[in-house]
């Protein structure tokens, strides 16, 4: 099991990143909450990881904060939620914000997260409400990470990978883009707008 990586950030393109650890490149998928706070490419980074093996694939997920990894693992214990929806949750809201929605039983807000319908939101509330006490108060700050060129296109790709349909992702990214915005900021604004 790989629990943590320390190395040089070699590449990032939401939701993917690569960490070079002594010449070995580990490719990871990460939520936008982690992507926002990554250092620039070429700088050292330490990530908590979650290793997942299925019959036909092996995946590695990276998180800057352990509470994000814990939430990622906890939400997947709910029937019908896999890694893709768990990443969408962490990309669309903070750990603290999600915990508060669950504790308040706010199924309307939860169902605005891509991949979560009304029934899944209700299951989340029933199955996770008691576990959320340890997450409240652990809000994570988001900063803008510098990403490669054409930020709006990158934002569209990232939104599609988070579960939005191509036309919806294009519309969301266009509505959220302002001059000078990088991809991380566009994605954050699009997700925040979708949750309103």
Question: What kind of oligomer do you see?
Answer: single chain
Low-confidence stretches: 138-149
Largest sheet: 5 strands, antiparallel
Residues in helices, as a percent range: 40-55%
Tell me what portion of residues adopts beta-strand conformation.
15-25%
Strand elements, count = 5
Return the CATH topology of the largest domain. Answer: DNA polymerase, domain 1
Tally of separate domains: 3
Shape: globular
C-alpha-based Rg, rounded: 16 Å
In the CATH hierarchy, what is the architecture of the largest domain at level 2? Answer: Orthogonal Bundle
Explain this structure.
- With 196 residues, this protein is α+β, with helices and mostly antiparallel strands.
- The protein has 3 domains: 4-63, Beta Barrel (OB fold (Dihydrolipoamide Acetyltransferase, E2P)), CATH 2.40.50.140; 66-134, 5' to 3' exonuclease, C-terminal subdomain (DNA polymerase, domain 1, Orthogonal Bundle), CATH 1.10.150.20; 151-194, Ubiquitin-associated (UBA) domain (Helicase, Ruva Protein, domain 3).
- The protein contains 9 helices and 5 strands.
- The protein has a 5-stranded antiparallel sheet with strand order 3-2-1-4-5.
- Helix 7 crosses helix 8 (166-176) and helix 7 crosses helix 9.
């Amino acid at each position: 099991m790989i629990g943590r990586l320390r190395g040089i950030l070699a590449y990032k393109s939401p939701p993917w990143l690569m960490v070079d650890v002594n010449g070995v490149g580990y490719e990871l998928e990460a939520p936008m909450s982690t992507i926002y706070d990554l250092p620039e490419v070429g700088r050292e980074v330490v990530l908590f990881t979650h290793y997942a093996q299925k019959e036909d694939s092996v995946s590695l997920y990276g998180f800057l904060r352990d509470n994000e990894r814990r939430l990622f693992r906890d939400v997947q214990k709910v029937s019908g939620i896999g890694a893709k929806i768990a990443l969408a949750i962490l990309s669309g809201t903070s750990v603290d914000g999600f915990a508060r929605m669950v504790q308040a039983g706010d199924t309307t807000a939860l169902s605005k997260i891509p991949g979560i319908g009304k029934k899944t939101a209700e299951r989340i509330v029933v199955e996770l409400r008691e576990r959320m006490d340890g997450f409240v108060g652990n809000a994570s700050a988001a900063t803008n990470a510098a990403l490669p060129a054409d930020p709006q296109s990158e934002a569209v790709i990232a939104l599609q990978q988070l579960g939005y349909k191509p036309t919806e992702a294009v519309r969301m990214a266009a509505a959220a883009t302002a001059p000078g915005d990088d991809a991380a900021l566009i994605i954050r604004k699009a997700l925040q707008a979708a949750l309103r």
